[in-house]
Amino acid sequence: MIRAAIRALMPGRKRSLDAAGGGRRWRDAPLTANAGTIHGGAATIAGRASHFALNSPLGARAVEVLVANAVGSGIKPRSLHPRDGVRDTLHRRFLAWTDEADADGLSDFFGLQQAAMRDLVIHGEALFQIIPDRMTLAPTLRRLHPEQLDRSLTRQSDDNVIYSGIEFDRTGRRVAYHVRPHAPGDMLAGMAATPTRMGADEVLHVYRPLAPGQVRGLSWFAPVLLTARDLDTLADAMTVRARVAALFAGFIRKPDGQPILDGEQSGAELDVSMEPGALVNLGAGDDVTFPTMPDQGGAAGLMEQQLRAIASGLGITYEQLTGDFSQVNYSSARAALLEFRRFIGGVQHHTLIHQFSRPIWREWVRAQVLAGGIPAAEFARDRADFMAVKWLPPAWQWVDPLKDAKAAETEINANLRSRAEVIAERGYDVEEVDQEIASDAARLARLTGGQQGAEGDTE
Questions:
Q1: Which residue among 206, 229, 296, 380 is least crowded, i.e. fewest CB within 10 A of its CB?
Q2: What does the pLDDT read at residue 130?
Q3: What is the pLDDT of residues 325-367, one digit of tens each?
Q4: Are residues 376 and 340 in the same domain?
Q5: Do residues 389 and 407 both lie within one domain?
């Protein structure tokens, strides 16, 4: 045995990786998980995820948690143009445009951000058509069902190639999208099934690429749907078991074998109804026995474990998924929220802002130039200044705001962080905050000064 161990440690001896081994434990394990694997099952998963989000309290809660934390009241732009007057003008005009951003008039621009995040979670991707307004030329957005992007369309088209409804040129750049006119399940969906070719500048396609070569999104519920289904089945079984157990309060034995309960006799069977709180008279010699039902504590523990697995797979906390905060304190809650917010911050900046908000800002600025709101010569000279923008997600609310405020104050006083950084983390713009503070101070000084003058006149 010692000799064999020494041979195993010799330099010329090779050891195989356990994860690359074979045997019974790896017999049914898949060998690949690439873009083709994702595209092959994405439509089925999206359909099941839609059902889960609409019919399960856990699914609905998870969607609301992710949407509320990623978008909230809106991820808002702050122009980085060096001139104060230009910045203020851009902010006012963009804010006015947000009410007209939805081509269907159902929401504003920030509501469309929420819709994009909702589709991103459920379907794995969001799809919007950009429609310029006829009068102002400003972009408006129409929300499309992601499955309107024809997943079945994959073929060579002249020098281009179409893959899952998206057309690419020789360099791999997206040049067009092939979109069906109606959403799946629509009564008119089968009447006009031919997709329409839309240029890449007419469509916003938002998704998180998980593998190289992936061109379509995958529902965020993909890792947890099977676990959620098992949990739902377990909960149903426990509920039925509890209901049946509640019906049998006790069993009465009569010496002569005659039934103690009233009911309808059908052959050898007696059909009786059982009601809560019923009292039954026992005769001489009758005996009553109360059943001992099995404990379901083990099943409850399994349910909690599965709930934690579902929350982990979705990137949210167990408490956010279930609303159960009985097992957390300030430190553990803060640690969990910090981890969650790092995840959400990545989604905000790398997906929602990069693929949805920034393109819309560029289209809106171009529309301002075409409509004469921005002088064309000035835009051509300072294009980068007009396009520069910083998007501010909604402020995070902490478990103990007082402790966090004191910590931020200490860091600022010790020159470890700037006010601008602290204010930006809370979802605000430092210039806007300073202007409001200065405005408040000026108004207070004006009101106080006027009151003092009136008192002096009286004397």
A1: 380
A2: 97
A3: 888 887 788 888 889 999 999 999 999 999 999 999 999 999 9
A4: yes
A5: no
- C-alpha distance from residue 215 to each of 127, 149, 428 (Å): 13, 12, 34
Segments forming the whole domain that contains residue 438: 400-452
Higher-pLDDT residue of 258 and 303 is 303
Segment 265-273 mean pLDDT? 62
Q: Tell me what the mean pLDDT of segment 15-31 comes to.
A: 65
Cβ contact 397:340 at 8 Å: no
Judge whether 411 lies within some domain.
Answer: yes
Number of H helices, E strands in the chain: 15, 14
Maximum CA extent, the chain: 109
- The model's pLDDT over 418-438, given as tens digits with 9 standing for 90+, comes to 888 788 777 777 888 888 899
Which domain-ending residue is among 375, 394, 413?
A: 394
β pairing state of 203-207 and 264-266: unpaired
Question: Is position 231 within any domain?
Answer: no
Q: What is the mean pLDDT of residues 270-284?
A: 60
**Residue 80 resides in a domain:** yes
Same structural domain, 376 and 405: no
Secondary structure class of 342 (helix, strand, coil): helix
State the pTM of this model.
Answer: 0.79
Between CA 148 and CA 166 the distance in angstroms is 12
150 and 210 share one domain: yes
Q: Which residues is 44 bridged to in the sheet?
A: none
**Both tokens assigned to 39:** 């595209």
Residue 103 lies in a domain: yes
Residue 21 to residue 306: CA distance in whole angstroms: 29
Q: How many domains does the chain have?
A: 2
Residues 112 and 151 in one domain: yes
304-330 residue pLDDT tens:
888 999 999 999 999 999 888 888 887
Q: Are residues 48 and 141 in the same domain?
A: yes
pLDDT bucket at 8, cuts 50 / 70 / 90: very low
How wide is the angle at C-alpha 12 spanned by C-alphas 11 and 16, nearest 5°?
A: 95
Please tell me whether residues 58 and 115 are part of one structural domain. yes
Angle between helices 330-347 and 57-70 (to 10 degrees): 70
- pLDDT of residue 77 exceeding 50, the answer is yes
The residue from 348, 374, 394 where one domain ends is 394
CA distance 240 to 247: 11
Instruction: With H, G, I as helix, E, B as strand and everything else as coil, classify residue 161.
Output: strand
CA 336 vs CA 63, 308, 315, 397: distances in Å: 18, 13, 10, 14
Task: Please spell the DSSP secondary structure of 405-421, one letter per residue.
Answer: HHHHHHHHHTTSS-HHH
Worst-scoring range by mean pLDDT, 10-24, 38-52, 186-200, 333-347?
Answer: 10-24
